[in-house]
Design goal:
Length: about 550
Amino acid sequence: MTNEGQAAVYDVVIVGAGPSGAVAAKRLAEEGMSVVCLEQGSYPDYTKLRHSGLEFELTKNQYFATNPNRRKDPSDYPIDVAESEIEPLMWNGVGGSSVIYTAAWHRLKPSDFRVRTVDGIADDWPLSYAELEPFYARVEHDFAVSGVGGDPAYPPGFDIPLPPFPMTAIDRKFSAAHDRLGWHWWPGSNSIATVKHNGLHPCVRRGACAWGCFDGAKASVDRTHWPACIKLGVKLVQNARVLRVETGSDGLATGVTYIDRESGTTHFQPGRLVIVSANGIGTPRLLLNSASTQHPQGLGNSSGMVGKRLMMHPYGTVTGLFDDFFENWQGPYGQRAYSLEFAETRKDTNFYRGAKWQLMGMGGPLATVGSWPWGSGGNVWGENFHETVRKRFGRSAYWGIMAEDLPSEENMVLLDPDVTDAQGMPAVKVKYKSSQNTLDLLDYNVLRATESMKEAGAYEVSSTPPMRETGWHILGTVRMGNDATDSVVDRFGRSHDVGNLFVMDGSIMPTSGAVNPTGTVTALALRNAEAIIANRRSQPVSQTVEARKVGY
């Protein structure tokens, strides 16, 4: 069933209600622009969480699993990962993946913007750290980032707006160990409130950040941004599967076609400007599915780069067992401390770039016998069960090692030629293989993290190879650049091919850095929204839309 109707023309149509879409919607609405956001999912139902109950560890993945292929919510779509070493993880709903991220917060380092200049590989960004710095500071306030400012691994000026979590016994073990080794360490910076801020409550340290935040302390944008967006007049349409970005005879975007997943009705939502914020898989999926006579390779894909250069931060772990008992189940789950000692290219290695280490929370008793972060888990059941729990619970810690992922055109997102989602839109096929550089990089960092564990007093240390279900950071598939022949969007996220089409999510990042990308993704969205505001009077708009005679 199709309902063309006469939908109101909005200044901006945004696809995706995750972090970048929410940041853009809020800033544009503050300037009086009319904004509608289409989201394929709905608000998270936090009443399904049982963080304080005995059943939490048995039910946490029932509704808030990070893997959409396992979760299979009606808002999800099939992703073929048969040819991928890493499985992409995401949340499809209002808040996007900020609902299930662990909230570790970073900026990229200056060299991350200049990898070609510094190391002679990959690419330089079409902007610098200095250009993005003021936008980093603004989103850090909105996202309630807590921690300790002044990390010497960054240029001066990286201040943290909220106070840090208190250091615990395990944090002190590793800070002292790194001081003795002469290696960098710093207290964890997290987008988790330690005091009341921007509608958030102080964290009670349940250590359950990765499965939604029952207490309302983690800065997911369903809490930090969407209430403000709604008050500003942004229209949020839930359960709206966007099938295509449409274009007029002048080649400019006219709006989007979507299906109401509940009624099955197809709608066209017109708009003067379209922003796609559907993550590094959903965005190329939509652009490729928007192919037309004018854009036969997919919308905005004259370079052939849409979907290519996928980066997902391969991840390994190094775990230590200790004699001392400490509260390792306490939050924050994602980052109690971190080290950037080995985050950039070193002359004494056989690989380029580096990795970030994050000291992680271990979880509750059942987490001591799970595959994470122990690998296969070994022989932990039966007669070994109680001894395993005794050794691990309250007496273990691990470094999560996040490798910088260099771009390769062999790693990509494609439309699945055979499988569709429930609304008939082609599903996705992901091809990804770690490079030898990545494998060497991880091997080196595992050895160094093992030294760290032993220096901190671990009597037994184990490690895992790159882990499969770790694709939280989906980057690079709609890369930005100055040259339209080898990039999809310009330095402000505007399509080289379609003058009123923008992309605002991690897909535009030319390189990945070695740190969690949400800070960079949201800073870019704010910067690009400001550019739209500054240029709104000269913004090209399709004459098909202007003919509807709805003014600013």
